[in-house]
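#struct-help
A.M.: can someone run this one for me? Single chain, 170 residues.
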Amino acid sequence: MSTPRTDIEQVELANTAFYEALEQGDFDTVSSLWLAPADVADDTVGSGGEEEREGPGISCVHPGWPVLNGRGEVLRSYALVMANTEYIQFFLTDVHVSVVGDTALVTCTENILSGGPAPDDSDELGPLLGQLVVATNVFRRTASGWKLWSHHASPVLAETGEAEDQESPG
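D.P.: on it. Structure tokens below:
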């Protein structure tokens, strides 16, 4: 049995691997980091239904997107994001990991820097944009390590000085 600190370190490594694979546009690695049918084969009773073909009930919410359920939908979304993103870099802050049994919860702030496509007459990236997102990643322990079970990311609404001025009593 692993010690609690070792589990936390392993979950931190799995979480980091997920974001690094996204930065590199490595779809195969992203796919391998999500729970798959083989990861939970011993835990489920086979019914031959959708769950058995798709694997465990993984889910994902990208900022501004509806909930995506099932391995096929989730992985298609990452393929789409990677195909339409020229450059992306994640700076994670406020990372908190907790492990209970074979389940781990990671909350963090994703400070995202992304670049759009190059202008037609240039080889350089388009303008870089920053975005602040809070995320919750749920991992499950498998025989081959910690795998993502669910990812939920929501944008952080930026406050402006104008809104504060309007709410201040005069």
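A.M.: thanks! Residues 44-52 have pLDDT under 50 and may be disordered.
D.P.: also worth noting: The two ends are 62 Å apart (CA to CA).
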